[in-house]
Write a structure and sequence with these properties.
The protein is about 30% helix and about 20% strand. With about 120 residues, the protein is an alpha+beta fold. A 6-stranded antiparallel β-sheet has the order 1-2-3-4-6-5, with helices on one face.
Amino acid sequence: MSLIDRLRGLCLALPEAFELEAWGHPTFRVGGGRGKIFCTAATDGATITLKADPVEREALLAQADPFFVPAYVGDKGWLGVRPGDPRADWQEIAELIATSYCLVAPKRLAAKVTGPPRLDG
């Protein structure tokens, strides 16, 4: 399974999440209309950006790779991850996706998330 397919599966497993292409790459959203973005990905899944808990974000950035400050949104509390990096932990990526979703989703949908999406679909 490709990186982008694996990421897509994690993002779309969350309640009422949907994908919309913007700026030439996939964005994963939740909510009415065009929704609120909770994850963006490179077309091949080589990098993702997501909203992060501020304390967790600082701890992850201190580790360096596979984490980085993304362009444009890094100063707004977003975190970059390189899922294909050998140091990347897919369970942690699933947890980060769930956290990002809960930070932007309407409360009624965030309340439905009791853990990260399953890695095996």
